[in-house]
Design a protein that fits this description.
The protein is α/β, with parallel strands linked by helices. It has ten helices and 13 strands. Helix 2 crosses helix 3 and helix 3 crosses helix 4.
């Protein structure tokens, strides 16, 4: 029998359990560069279709998503998605999940999983972190919630092109051109870029050497939110070197400009399982594009929560495919 998890049931897993699902999978041997199936992008008349399959730890799943840039003007969601989870032994479908809620949960979970130790160190130093978030959409809100679930947050500034009403999860909402935005970026311990911009949304020279940047807005090689100046002086963490060099414009363009060497990229697995340490005296940029294994491990955790089954539900000894 296939059960259904609506948006509220997916979200009920919460950011702490979602971060744990990501980190547990990596600690258990999942290899994001281990021969998985790349995201399939299907050009459509009014946007894109995305197919994201993955198999790991006794489970197989696939997310089917669409991106319609014209939808916000129609009062509709820009991104829609559905996730279908199977038992990988019988290939029987076991759960159908709201894919938008899943994406909203797993993307911040991956970001926080990559920099959790740095966030905790900064929180120990300052008591509460100052955040600047470029973009007032679900991913901006989700990243604030995920950071707040793990460390104290003192202040949140959300920045959009025109500014406007302050959302309930922020303290102020200036427009991108306001003079106090640069000052907020200089003071910030964490900056989130979660926009549909195709050019950098902040001046990387403004960031302090201890700052963390969570860049999540793009998955196209010619689109960036973070400039080469920042990428060149930062430790850059990616989900997968292969994926980043294929899809992450922030990485691809910085490499093309000579600001970033590909062999200096640090992977999520390097940090979580491989013992790599990000120097505290350099900015830390976490650049994610989204990969199928991330949806899978969080979907399994959400499914098992609904079914009342303890544990992450992903067998730690299995070979991973993204």
């Amino acid at each position: 029998m296939t059960v259904t998890l609506d948006a509220a049931e997916v979200a009920a897993l919460g950011p702490v359990a979602a971060v744990a699902a990501v980190r547990d999978a990596l600690a258990g041997g999942l290899d994001p560069d281990g021969g998985g199936v790349p995201r399939t992008v299907v050009p459509l008349a009014h946007g894109q279709g995305l197919l994201m399959p993955a198999e790991y730890g006794g489970w197989y799943g696939v997310k089917v998503a669409t991106v319609a840039p014209g939808n916000p003007a129609r009062g509709l969601r820009r991104i829609n998605a559905t996730y279908l989870l199977h038992d990988s032994a019988t290939l029987t479908p076991v759960a159908l999940l709201d894919g938008v809620a899943l994406t909203a949960l797993r993307t911040p979970a991956v970001s926080v999983a990559a920099c959790l130790e740095r966030l905790r160190a900064l929180a120990a130093r300052y008591g509460g972190l100052r955040l600047v978030v470029f973009g007032a959409g679900p991913q901006g809100e989700g990243h604030v919630a995920a950071v707040r679930a793990h460390v104290p947050v003192a202040d949140v500034t959300v920045v959009t092109r025109r500014g406007g009403a302050v959302p309930g999860w922020a303290d102020r909402h200036p427009a991108a051109g306001d003079r106090d935005v640069a000052a907020a970026v200089r003071r910030a311990q964490v900056v989130v870029t979660a926009t549909s911009a195709r050019e950098p949304v902040l001046d990387g020279r403004l960031l302090s050497d201890e700052a963390v940047v969570l860049a999540v807005g793009s998955h196209e090689p010619d689109v960036r939110e973070v400039d080469g100046a920042l990428m060149g002086r930062a430790t850059v963490v990616v989900e997968s070197r292969e994926t980043a060099l294929r899809e992450a414009g922030d990485v691809v363009l910085a490499v093309r400009e000579g600001a970033l060497a590909p062999d200096l990229l640090v992977t999520l697995a390097d940090l979580v399982e491989g013992g790599a340490v990000a120097p505290a005296d350099r900015p830390l940029v976490v650049k994610t594009c989204g990969m199928g294994w991330q949806d899978l491990v969080v979907a399994v955790a959400a499914h098992r929560r609904k079914e009342g089954t303890p544990g992450s539900g992903v067998e730690s000894g299995s070979a991973g495919r993204s």
